[in-house]
Amino acid sequence: MVVVPSELKRPVRLSARDREELIRLTTTGVHPASAIRRARVLLALDTSVGEPDPKEVIAARLEVSGEMLRLVAKRFAETGGDVLATISRKKRDLPPVPSPVTGEVEARLIALACSTPPAGHARWSLRLLEKHVELTEDIPSLDHSTIGRVLKKRNCVLI
């Protein structure tokens, strides 16, 4: 069985135009640090200008981990050699968890905060609102910090 060095599992072969673009990106203008770091990794792993240095040497020179080298090479292969897609950040389709605060929930929460406080209380507090929200069936349970953010966003002041 022949052991293939990890650099050759996913070889990075850049065209002359791609190399120029990456060199320009790393040396001029204002770009995100992560994009510059990935561009430098691609330039260091490029096999079109000769045999790249061993992974450990590249990682030490660029001050990144060996895992970073592997991930950039993997992403380059996954994008079909698209340099810009490799160095740019992936866009998320949707937020991981939809917010429980919708427009209707916000309106009901503001209406509750503007109503008179329950007997025995001079005013609404965030914790008191939290307890009443838990008792209300048509409003999802929200903690006091979320309630405070909603009220602050709408400039509602608890008096």
Write structural notes for this entry.
There is one protein chain. The protein is an all-alpha fold. Helices cover 55% and strands 0% of the residues. The chain is built from nine helices and no strands. Helix 2 (16-27) runs antiparallel to helix 3 and helix 8 crosses helix 9 (144-153). The chain starts with 5 loop residues before the first helix and ends in a 6-residue tail after the last helix. The relative contact order is 0.10. Residues 1-7 have low confidence and may be disordered.
* Low-pLDDT residue intervals, each spanning 5 or more residues: 1-7
Shape, principal axes of CA atoms: rod-shaped
Number of helices: 9
Q: Whole-Å distance between the termini?
A: 77 Å
**What fraction of residues sit in β-strands?**
under 5%
Compute the gyration radius: what is it? 27 Å
How many strands?
0
Protein structure class: mainly alpha
Mean pLDDT: 88
Binned, the helix content reads 40-55%
Largest sheet: none
Question: H/E element string?
Answer: HHHHHHHHH
Provide a compact summary of the structure.
The protein is mainly alpha-helical and 159 residues long. It is built from 9 helices and no strands.
List keywords for this structure.
159 residues, 9 helices, 55% helix, 0% strand, disordered N terminus
Task: Walk me through the topology.
Elements: H1 6-9, H2 16-27, H3 33-45, H4 55-62, H5 66-78, H6 83-87, H7 103-114, H8 126-135, H9 144-153
Helix pairs in contact: 2-3, 3-5, 8-9
